[in-house]
Amino acid sequence: MTRRETAPRAAVQKEGRALWIEETGRCALRQEELxxxxxxxxxxxxxxxxxxxxxxxxxxxxxxxxxxxxxxRAPHQAGQFPFPVKxxxxxxxxxxxxPEHLVGKTVFCLHPxxxxxxxxxxxxxxxxxxxxxxxxxLAANMETALNITWDADVQPGDRVAVFGAGxxxxxxxxxxxxxxxxxxxxxxxxxxRAGPAEALGLRFSSAGxxxxxxxxxxxxxxxxxxxxxxxxxxxxxxxxVEASWYGExxxxxxxxxxxxxxxxxxxxxxxxxxxxxxxxxxxxxxRMGKALQLLADDRLDHxxxxxxxxxxxxxxxxxxxxxxxxxxxxxxx
Length: 333
Fold this sequence. Notes:
This protein is α/β, with parallel strands linked by helices. It folds into 2 domains: 15-126 and 297-332, Alpha-Beta Complex (Quinone Oxidoreductase, Chain A, domain 1); 141-268, Rossmann fold, CATH 3.40.50. It is built from 8 helices and 17 strands. It has helices at residues 53-60, 133-136, 139-152, 167-177, 194-199, 224-232, 284-293, 313-322; strands spanning 15-23, 26-33, 41-52, 78-79, 85-86, 91-97, 106-109, 116-120, 124-126, 159-163, 183-187, 203-205, 214-219, 234-242, 265-268, 304-309, 328-332. Strands 3, 6, 7, 8, 9, 16 and 17 form a 7-stranded mixed beta sheet that branches. A 6-stranded parallel beta sheet has the order 12-11-10-13-14-15, sandwiched between helices. This is Putative dehydrogenase.
């Protein structure tokens, strides 16, 4: 076969089931026909997908601002904000149909929660050797954490404080701690988050015991109070990265006190765009490939806080999203 020829399709099902958010606080499984076959596409049978609690909770609650409807569209999303919408971006599955070199391979895809789907070959990312499909649901989160770390410009020896020990905060702290000589601390108002942090070899602290004069401070908590604390603990000319997305929520930032005297910088980070210093050499595919490589550490399994079968996810989704104990929740197909 040539590169563009595909393996036989006779045995591949032409329908799939997907999780749709129907209205605020309610979702359902819908049966849908797969699009007609096109050249250079694959059909993927899903093994696992991951619920990204922070973003998905805003979508589930209908709190995506109208101004952000287009920018907030997930790859291969169906429907329109606010509802009904098929949303999600962390699926791992086996290629059932497509180019011969990919059939039977396990791939990661930025796709909503769905048991079988068709997508372009270019959007299917083969898993790195030795990476389990169970852990690979963290790939989108690791990609985001990598982008935040780049935006933060963490350097060897830096004193780094990360606020919010959810999946993104833990992964950012994990990456920063692997830069030689860094002193990294992660903080969260939930004391039970100390367990996953310590499992990753991270120092966990309450807000009242954070070091002062930090070089880099990263807020991944979606809390304005945490951002204010970051300002208080920043050293002169320190860099503060706001990695949270607040949806429709308005926040206040205390820019009095020593903010100007310290010449502090507050910058945003968003995974939709590569940092300016990377754009000449990196693209999204290279970044995702690196994110998959960075998942090789077995300790990252501590970021999976639970697993639910796809058959019951419509009924269980609200409880998963609403639980403060949820990190990355895995759906098993």
